[in-house]
Each structure stands twice: as structure tokens, then as C-alpha cells.
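=== RUN LOG ===
request id: a7f3
mode: sequence -> structure
chains: 1
length: 357
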Amino acid sequence: MAYRMILIGTGGQGRHWCQTFLPPNIREGLVEVVGAVDINADALQNARTFLGLRPDQCYSDAGRALDENRADFCAIVTPPAFHEEMVDLALAHDMHILSEKPIADTLVASVRVESKVLSAGKKMGVTMSHRFDQDKTTLRHHVKSGMYGPLDYLVCRVTCDNRQFGSWGEYRHRMNDPLLIEAAGHRLDILADLADSPCKTFYARTWCPPWGEYAGDCQALGILEFENGVRAVYESAKSNAVGLSGPGREYIRAECQGATLVLSNRRLERFVYDASRSNRQELEGEGEDVALLERPKWSNAWLIEKFVHWLDTGEPMETSVSDNVQDVAMNWAGIKSCRLGQPVSVQDLLAEARKQI
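=== RESULT ===
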């Protein structure tokens, strides 16, 4: 039997939920959308067009939608500042929750949301969609397969030419920490997943060059150390002359004992260690191609399926709220590190936030 759900937010990313992520899960009988909410009446047209909802199933007020429709869970696709309010509404209506990242707009609020969900005995997942792209999933499979021995370190690069005001959305150009708040979450999540360990420390430096039309910092370099000893280098930029590896097409290199794996622009190649060849040098782009894995769904469409299976079996999805709190802590540790000019303990920062709720 399909789980009944209410979609909160149908514009922007919510349009993708209506058009791309939900339909395959509806066709498979996993979910039934019984209501949709958006404060913008025009955005609700997405729910009518792509999900076939009637006008009386579309609401401008989330509280009324939850009052008038029995549902098993809601999907929160609103700006982060409204996430906690929507979580409170869902819990008041005895519902599980699937939410876009981040959990909330601050670390303390994110920890508070986690506490509320666990205390209510409900399940909450966060859609870290980039980790579940086809190329990243293939890289993860190979890194964690054990066929190349232990992982030593990682390199992640995502660079863009968004230096002109408004080219990355006007509100981001006005933010204090646009890069770490808006752009780092998915990449830090991917790095922690590949490292297969909580992050221990994050040392980050951010800045804005004279040609970057931002109120806050738009360039970043960082070093992360994970509790199992794996290290990572993170490079992100929004004001470069050209984008070499934009969002979704990130450059990620995994240095393992037995191979170097390079993911770039959705192509994965490997260079296997050869003990018979000393001082071997090769060029990226000339390695052995690794076939990308195939499956019916990727990204949020797959995560919706994973969430439903969690509701079915009780086996938590990889991006549960408690797991995702680690990602939020990494983001805020990076921001704090920039301000202090020194590495920050991610776990200490998270512990401090837990004391504040």
C-alpha cells in the first residue's frame, strides 16, 4: 500500500519534486501525494500539472493542509529558515518527515530538530541528493569495495564562474558565508561518506577576491581530517575565470593503497598501482575507464524510495536526521574555522550545540 504524503513547497526545487522525483515512486505504488502546499499560488500549478492534484488538494497554508488530509509523512521543500516550523507541524500531526537539506538554518536549530524527532519517535530523512548521483555512487562502490585496499586521502574540487552579481542568485551574493552555507553541504557529505567516518577537524580559509561581486566570502580552501585517519582537501570557488568542475560535475580524487580513482565531469577512471614500474607518471584523462553503475532511479527519486523502505522495514536510510547532523556540524565548523584562523573540532562544536537545546 502506498504511503500518503503531503508536499510542502512546489516552486523552485519543489518543481523538480513534482516533475521528476515523485512520479516514478507514484507509478511504483510507493507514495500517494494527497496534498501540496506553497505560499505562491502560481507554484501550486506544478502539483496540479505533474501530480494531477485537484485544486482542493492545493493549499497556501501548511497547517490547514495537514489538518485536512491524513498522511503518513510530509516532504519539506522550503527555504531552510522555515524547516523547523514545518517539522513542528508534522510532529504535531504524528507524521514522519523527509526534508531537503540542510536540516535547519543553524547548527543549534538542526540539533533541536533532531531531538524533537527522536523524542517523538518519528523518522526523518534528509535528501543529500548529490551523494546518490550515478557517478558518485559508482565512486563510492569502488572506494568501499576493498579491491584497492585502504583509502589514504581525498581531493574534491568544485569551481565556477559566478563572479557577477546575481549570477548565483542575488540572495547568495548578499550573504555573509554563501560558499560554506549554500555550496559546501553536498560536497562535505560526499567526502564524509567516502571517508566512512565522522569528521574530526576542519581547517578552512575563505575570502572574496576584488573581482568577486559578493558581500561575503566566495572562495574556499579547506583540509578535513576524519576520525579514522583519512584526510581530505576541499577546494570551492564561485569567482574563477572559468568553471572547471561545476555543481553536479565535481572533481573528486580518491587515493587508495592500490589505485588512484579520478572522477571528473561524471567520468570515472582508475590508475592501478604497478609494483614493477618505479616512478610511474601518467596523465589524468588517460586512465582506464570505469563503467558507471546502472539502476532505475538516482538522486532524490532514489532517496524517496529509500525513505519508504525505512518506513517499511525500520532499517534507517543513510541520510537520517542523526547522520545528517554531522554534515551540518562540518559546515559550521568550517565557518568558525575561517573566523578563528585555526582548525575546529567538529565533534566538540556539535557537543556544544547539544548543550544549548
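=== NOTES ===
The mean pLDDT is 97.
The radius of gyration is 21 Å.
=== END ===
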